[in-house]
Design a protein that fits this description.
4-stranded parallel beta sheet; single chain; binds adenosine monophosphate; binds zinc ion; Rossmann fold; Isoleucyl-tRNA Synthetase, Domain 1
Length: 515
């Protein structure tokens, strides 16, 4: 089959377009990374996963990829939906909240950056070629601000330096926000600066000698605005024309709108061709929030502590889910569609991931046995792979791609006797599918295993106390008619070697195997 055309929805043009890299077969793109003031949540990772899948799809087409994915460690304020936000610096606020845990704000940034990178690897995301920190590029940002002032796109007041949105033609084009809507996004502006020329102008530099991270500038001590960071880091590593830019949908306005304006003003032409945005993840049908009790960080689900009471017992009891199951779950919605994360989907995903792993084990055994016989699988698996890749090229249609991959697992499972030749085809298919989707084997774990000798196994120390809780959870689910959830909890218990017996007086359990 000839390679399918890679198509993505471009927020800028409102069209699903063929991806045509500026340099032939070399995709160069920038991804807005996390602000490192807390552990990343599963919604954040829905967005980061889009960038990883985009990379994997391009690589499957034989393209080179250069991805820059930043760490925001300064300048992201709490009112980030406003054009010129006030509120507190998210990092500074976190330090006030958690002060005793950290020596200073740099220590806090280091801690959450390291945790973020661990989560990134756990979810089997490939490393970007460059992962710059905003604080490493403050001098570059200052140069950019000076240049914007010199070119007449920015001006200084006592409170900072502002970008003049009127100085560029297309401001508002990406988001489609009219001037009235742009003005609305300034209403709650608590740092109203009387010297601002237009309320819509946004800060490139904030004058604030008291800020915990401050740098010297031609306008005194202060710190950079959030939007200029990404423009500068993008162009620093990818040049003034690159292919694509990713982020969550909340970044369309103002963050990316402002980036486009800055880029245009600095380069004199548009810099990025495709803007790709991931729709927000919801949990159990609602916006994820701590107050709604449906807020999960990645580590809540993959390595919960025994005292993480907000994590469902079904997750805690098994010491967390396989991170690949979380990855698989996040792929059950196409990045651009609303996606409702539920524990049911997570449990089902865990079963599918286990299935892939069992298939891989069977294939390994068949390769060892190397039985004579024809290759009954090769053509079928090639066709399945082609459909998987075609689905990914169709605007990253991950539900269709994972469904096709499951067909491959079924095809292997249903082959009674795997000849050495069929096993070879199956092995090749597993490797290609994993390369593209990353849901069968973790690349980082494979690396670690190469050097490791001990399988840490299940973390069961805290188990006994949780089993009763888990059973209660299952009873509650049954009473409220959530039978799929009840079954999923039973599966969890079984996976842990716990047999559940439903007696008239209530459920009882016993260990099937000694843990
Ligand atoms: P932040 O750490 O707040 O800068 O966010 C990091 C990335 O996660 C950004 O691209 C956000 O747009 C994205 N993001 C935040 N919340 C969600 C969510 N619920 N679903 C999907 N993406 C999100
Ligand atoms: Zn950004």
């Amino acid at each position: 089959m000839s390679a399918p055309t890679f198509r993505l929805y471009n927020t800028l043009t409102h069209e699903t377009e063929p991806v045509e890299p500026i340099e032939e077969e070399h995709l160069r793109f920038y991804s807005c990374g996390p602000t490192v003031y807390m552990y990343a949540h599963i919604g954040n990772f829905r967005s980061f996963l889009t960038a990883d899948l985009l990379r994997r799809t391009a690589e499957a087409l034989g393209w080179d990829v250069t991805n820059v994915s930043n760490i925001t460690d300064v300048g992201h304020l709490t009112q980030d939906d406003l054009v010129d936000p006030g509120g507190a610096d998210k990092m500074q606020q976190a330090l006030e909240r958690e002060g005793e845990r950290f020596a200073n704000i740099y220590d806090l940034a280091r801690h959450y950056t390291e945790a973020f990178l661990e989560d990134w690897r756990a979810l089997n995301l490939r490393e970007p070629e460059v992962r710059p920190r905003a604080t490493e590029h403050v001098t570059d940002q200052l140069h950019a601000v000076v240049e914007l002032v010199e070119k007449g796109h920015a001006y200084a007041t006592d409170q900072g330096v502002y970008f003049s949105v009127e100085s560029v033609a297309d401001y508002g084009h990406l988001s489609g926000n009219t001037e009235a809507q742009q003005l609305e996004a300034t209403d709650r502006d608590v740092v109203e600066d009387p010297d601002k020329r237009d309320p819509r102008d946004f800060a490139l530099w904030k004058h604030d000698p008291e800020h915990l991270m401050h740098w010297h500038s031609p306008w005194g001590w202060g710190y950079p605005g959030w939007h200029i960071e990404c423009s500068v880091m993008g162009m620093h590593y990818l040049g003034d024309r690159f292919d694509l830019h990713t982020g969550g949908e909340d970044l369309i306005f103002p963050h990316h709108e402002c980036e486009i304006a800055q880029n245009q003003a600095l380069a004199g032409h548009p810099v990025v061709n495709y803007w790709v945005h991931t729709r927000f993840l919801q949990v159990e049908g609602e916006k994820m929030s701590k107050s709604a009790g449906n807020f999960y960080t990645v580590r809540d689900l993959i390595q919960p502590g025994p005292d993480d009471a907000h994590v469902p017992a079904s997750i805690r009891a098994r010491g967390g889910v396989d991170p690949l199951a979380l990855r698989y779950t996040l792929m059950q919605g196409q990045y651009r569609k609303p996606f409702n994360f539920t524990l049911d989907t997570l449990h089902t995903a865990a079963r599918h991931v286990r299935r892939f792993q069992e298939v891989a084990e069977r294939v390994d055994e068949a390769l060892d046995a190397d039985a004579d016989g024809p290759d009954t699988l090769g053509d079928r698996l090639d066709d399945i792979y082609d459909r998987t890749l075609a689905a990914m090229c169709d605007d990253l249609n991950t539900p269709a791609a994972t469904a096709a991959a499951l067909e491959g697992a079924t095809a292997i499972e249903q082959t009674d006797r795997l000849s050495g030749a069929a096993a070879e085809s199956a092995r090749a298919w597993l490797a290609r599918t994993n390369d593209l989707l990353g849901i069968i084997e973790s690349e980082f774990e494979a690396e670690e295993r190469a050097g490791a000798t001990v399988d840490p196994g299940l973390d069961t120390d805290h188990l006994s106390g949780s089993i009763d809780e888990l059973l209660q959870d299952r009873e509650d689910a049954r009473e409220s008619g959530e039978y799929a959830r009840a079954d999923a909890i039973r599966d969890t218990l079984e996976a842990l070697g716990i047999e559940v017996m439903d007696r008239p007086e209530g459920p009882e359990w016993r260990r099937e195997v000694e843990l």
